[in-house]
Amino acid sequence: MAAVGKRVWVPFGKRMITGYIWRFRENIEEEEAARLKPVVDILDEVPLFPDSMIPFFEWISDYYMYPLGEVVKTA
Question: What is the pTM (predicted TM-score) of this model?
């Protein structure tokens, strides 16, 4: 079952990469939905971090100008 904080396997160009479920949205514009990647597999049984950590990760990424995915991966 999908949940914020779980890792997912998604296509990215010609390769597959690991991503994170960051948030859920109900109303998505059609052109924005076209840019979303389909989830091939959910890799975790339980979330790696609670959704309450998201603002902290975003702050670290902005403050240190470091990619958000790398911040989460390092944490």
Answer: 0.81
